[in-house]
């Protein structure tokens, strides 16, 4: 469950930053309190399914996208053998 809570917090924060929005603005769109949104972003809250739906609906994104792990920004490099 901690993984889902962490993913939700990271995805919410990512969407908020991508859109250049404050927690107040998100709160108005979603009808979820600023305090609860802050706790969710920090991974300190276990929101109900209903709350997650409100967030997804208010932000016009899919429910499942909020629960997905963020995509890694690191790239895998192929190991190449160096010949001297």
Structural class call reads: mainly alpha
The DSSP helix count reads 5
- Assembly context of the chains: single chain
User: What do the pLDDT scores average to?
Assistant: 88
At CATH level 2, the architecture is: Orthogonal Bundle
Order of secondary-structure elements: HHHHH
Q: What is the 3D shape?
A: elongated
- CATH class assignment: Mainly Alpha
Radius of gyration: 17 Å
CATH superfamily: lambda repressor-like DNA-binding domains
Number of E strands: 0
Distance between the amino and carboxyl termini: 50 Å
Main sheet attributes: strand count, strand direction, barrel closure = none
Give a structural overview.
By secondary structure, the chain is an all-alpha fold. The chain has one domain: Orthogonal Bundle (434 Repressor (Amino-terminal Domain)), CATH 1.10.260.40. It is 60% helix and 0% strand. It has five helices and no strands. It has helices at residues 2-19, 23-30, 34-41, 49-59, 63-67. α1 crosses α3 (34-41).
List the helices and strands and how they pair.
Blueprint: H1 2-19, H2 23-30, H3 34-41, H4 49-59, H5 63-67
Helix pairs in contact: 1-3
